[in-house]
């Protein structure tokens, strides 16, 4: 048996510019941070039975790989010619379909396990790019390259994507004091609403009216985010998040929902929160807010509204073989 894990992530800037419909015209620029919440996955060959067994929220046992409904698992196994006598089990620290990049993390963890099972090792960049190829090219999903890359590399990274889709991965180096200050001020809360990211991302396609201009603005804000974080002026980042929130909501009415709008408004008006956003594609999942004061009061208010805080730290290892 081989066991792996890959981290979830939070997007700090440039989200959406990592999709082919945008970067093939303008290039993409994303700042992302892996966090210490993980997808755990095990892969085990079966010497007694020929079925393919994949267990996640559902359990699938199939004789033919084509019958496997879990599309990412199916195509990862197909790519590496594993068509029988294999078992894959997975679980995660947080629910899927909540905006933390779980699908990309799952695929990177599975590909890492498969490659170690077959002793067909590759670089971290190749691992990330292989996952991108399955999701974007093979499955044709409206996703970008951020999730796979940050799951593979871990850390706090800048992803600079050219029009050919080539990704340069650069570390965003903050000293321990500043990194702790940033993460302490970025509160993350679970809003208990799941959504289908592909449906929401389809409405953010670059070709739809006004979206190209919005994405160009988001890319520019990504550059601003990098300058701000490197300078350590994190309150400016909080204010930029508020601008980002309002811009993202212009993509479609599905970007936010009543509870998120209500909570966010109260946090700003009552506790001086500077900014925030729904992590990921939008529509549900986790609310991230930047607060430089009133931390205890905010925590109490959220508990009174039955909203749970996700306590986290940065992950610096990326996808990892556990044993």
Please write out the topology:
Layout: E1 2-13, H1 20-26, E2 28-45, E3 52-55, E4 59-62, H2 71-79, E5 86-92, H3 102-117, H4 124-138, H5 146-153, E6 156-161, E7 167-171, H6 176-185, E8 186-190, H7 197-202, H8 211-231, H9 234-248, H10 258-271, E9 275-278, E10 286-290, H11 295-304, E11 308-309, E12 320-321
Parallel strand pairs: 3-5
Antiparallel strand pairs: 1-2, 1-12, 2-5, 2-6, 3-4, 6-7, 8-10, 8-11, 9-10
Quick summary:
Helices cover 41% and strands 23% of the residues.
Question: What does this protein look like?
Answer:
This protein is an alpha+beta fold. Helix content is 41%, strand content 23%. It contains eleven helices and twelve strands. Strands 1, 2, 3, 4, 5, 6, 7 and 12 form an eight-stranded mixed beta sheet that branches. A hairpin with a 7-residue loop joins strand 9 and strand 10. Helix 2 runs parallel beside helix 3, helix 3 packs across helix 4 and helix 3 packs across helix 5. The chain is globular.
